[in-house]
Design a protein that fits this description.
- It is built from 11 helices and 2 strands, in the order H-H-H-H-H-H-H-H-H-E-E-H-H.
- The chain is mainly alpha-helical and 337 residues long.
- Among the domains are: 173 residues, Serine Threonine Protein Phosphatase 5, Tetratricopeptide repeat (Alpha Horseshoe); 31 residues, no CATH class.
- Strands 1-2 form a two-stranded antiparallel ribbon.
- Strand 1 and strand 2 form a beta hairpin.
- The longest helix is centred in the middle third of the chain and has 67 residues.
- The protein starts with a helix and ends with a helix.
- The relative contact order is 0.06.
- Keywords: Repeat, TPR repeat.
Length: 337
């Protein structure tokens, strides 16, 4: 029985192994290349900037993120918008690398623009570079926490990585800020997987809680059993100690006087006085002494004396005291005769 209980507890204590969740939708391998930094001069000559970024595009350099704390002049702001326009034209022609270059130029000219980061994030999504898209989307949301395009780009990028629950959250936020059909289409693919994952997680959270509850209950029962066993042991010890105490009392008078007088006086007088005078004293007068009361004991003794009580009292007080009583009674009776 104990082995069965141990086996059951061992089975209950085993780790819960989660099964895989059946999900739908395609994902891509994460792009783990961090953006590389390049040296650039803060020059006001826009022609030099165009030349520099053409070199960057040619050698596929990835430039650093802009500094959103710098002050942006009107000239740089206008130049940033011009670079963005060129990027949109390149996107329409499918020239995504070129578009990235123009958008990078736009970001460096105006690093305080959330829409520039969000737009570049959307291009990285087209290039299947979700991690790069998430970096740009995060930058856009740091500048503008209400950027619908930032949430949209990050949500789509997360769905590409299989981060279904996070993607659904971002896309719902984007839809609240600025609903469009693309967000709705992506949500139709994302939400079923997000729901499956949530149900899967709740299922195993419930199983783990049930396992923990069973463990707590087993521990409670174990402690209760230990307390009961301790109580029973103490009770048995107390009973055993009490029994030994009674057995250790001095051997006394089993139903009689010392030296084995079963229920009678010395000399073996069963139920009567010395000499074996059944029912009265020697020479007694039936019916009592002259002038005696009716119902008294023959021989003049009062009829209401219970000799058994006298014997019992004498047994408690001791043999010598009893003998004195009967000698006194005997002499008194003879004197009256």
């Amino acid at each position: 029985m104990a082995d069965l209980q141990d086996a059951q507890e061992e089975g209950d204590d085993s780790d819960i192994v989660e099964s895989d969740v059946e999900l739908e939708g395609d994902t891509v391998e994460p792009d783990n290349d961090p953006p590389q930094k390049v040296l650039f001069l803060l020059l006001h000559n826009s022609e030099f900037w165009h030349l520099m970024f053409s070199v960057v595009r040619k050698f596929h350099f990835r430039v650093q993120m802009g500094d959103p704390t710098v002050e942006v002049s009107e000239e740089n702001r206008d130049a940033s918008q011009m670079a963005k326009g060129q990027a949109m034209e390149a996107i329409s022609e499918g020239k995504l690398e070129e578009a990235i270059g123009h958008l990078t130029e736009a970001i460096l000219l105006n690093p305080t623009s959330a829409i520039m980061y969000a737009t570049r994030a959307s291009v990285y999504i087209k290039m299947k570079k979700p991690n790069a898209a998430i970096r740009d989307a995060n930058a856009a949301l740091e500048i503008n926490p209400d950027s619908a395009k930032g949430y949209k780009s990050r949500g789509i990028a997360r769905s590409m990585l299989g981060q279904w629950e996070e993607a659904a959250k971002d896309l719902h936020l984007a839809s609240k800020l600025d609903y469009d059909e693309e967000i709705s289409a992506v949500l139709k693919k994302v939400e079923p997987n997000a729901h499956r994952i949530e149900e899967h997680r709740r299922k195993y959270e419930r199983l783990r809680k049930e396992k923990e509850d069973k463990k707590i209950e087993r521990e409670r029962q174990r402690r209760r059993a230990q307390a009961q066993a301790a109580y029973e042991k103490a009770k048995k010890q107390e009973q055993s100690s009490s029994s030994r105490t009674h057995e250790g009392m001095p051997s006394g008078f089993p139903g009689g006087m010392p030296e084995g007088f079963p229920g009678g006086m010395p000399g073996g007088f069963p139920g009567g006085m010395p000499g074996g005078f059944p029912g009265g004293m020697p020479g007694g007068f039936p019916g009592g002494m002259p002038g005696g009361s009716p119902g008294s004991v023959p021989g003049g003794m009062p009829g209401n004396i219970d000799y058994s009580k006298i014997l019992n009292v004498s047994m408690r007080l001791g043999f010598s005291f009893k003998l004195d009583i009967f000698l006194h009674v005997d002499s008194a009776s003879k004197a009256k005769c």
